[in-house]
Automatic annotation (TrEMBL):
Organism classification: Bacteria, Pseudomonadati, Pseudomonadota, Alphaproteobacteria, Hyphomicrobiales
Membrane keyword on record: yes
Keyword annotations from UniProtKB, A to Z: Membrane, Transmembrane, Transmembrane helix
Gene3D superfamilies per the UniProt record, alphabetical: Nucleic acid-binding proteins
InterPro entries assigned to the protein according to its UniProt record, in alphabetical order: Membrane_assoc_protease, NA-bd_OB-fold, NfeD-like_C
Entry keyword annotation includes Transmembrane helix: yes
Protein name (record): NfeD-like C-terminal domain-containing protein
Subcellular location: Membrane
Membrane-protein topology: Multi-pass membrane protein
All copies of domain NfeD-like C-terminal, residue ranges: 97-151
Domain of life according to the entry: Bacteria
GO terms for cellular component: plasma membrane
Residues annotated as transmembrane: 12-36, 56-75
Organism from which the protein derives: Allorhizobium borbori
Length: 152
């Protein structure tokens, strides 16, 4: 069936395949099918030029399509790599990382390197030098749920 459709459409079959892939990107977004679709469209351009040439058989077309898809995917990865790096909320969904740099008051003393502080409405376990309750501290780092603090 696909061979019959490709034979009827001729060089336009790659254009149709490219458009179908680009439309599929709208249904399943992820910016991946775009690059494969561009490979199909580029193969379609070459098909318009070389359709009647003896060397432009389906095997060559498939290899050209695969090569262009890989090239466009690599170019696309390079283009997309830098996108989204700058954010006005860099620690969104990283609660512990968003606490680094904040100051607080020890609710309980730090004894033997362990204590607790209250930030907003949450109790946090802290690690740091032994300090009495009521000491002002600064959060220096966070690992898992534990915060590392230092006197402020």
């Amino acid at each position: 069936m696909l061979a019959r459709i490709a034979a009827e459409l001729g060089p336009w079959s790659w254009w149709v395949a490219g458009m179908v892939l680009l439309a599929a990107e709208l249904v399943a977004p992820g910016v991946f099918l775009v690059w494969i679709g561009l490979g199909a469209l580029t193969t379609g351009v070459l098909s318009l030029l070389f359709w009647d040439a003896g060397f432009w058989v389906w095997q060559v077309q498939s290899l050209v399509f695969a090569a262009f898809s890989v090239v466009f995917t690599l170019i696309g990865r390079k283009i997309m790599r830098g996108r989204g790096a700058d954010s006005d909320e860099p620690h969104l969904n990283q609660r512990v990382a968003s606490l680094v740099g904040r100051t607080a008051t020890l609710e309980e003393p730090i004894r033997e390197g362990r204590g607790r502080i209250r930030l907003d409405d949450t109790w946090w376990p802290v690690n740091g030098p032994d300090l009495p309750a009521g000491t002002r501290i600064r959060i220096a780092a966070g690992h898992g749920r534990d915060l590392t603090v230092e006197p402020f």
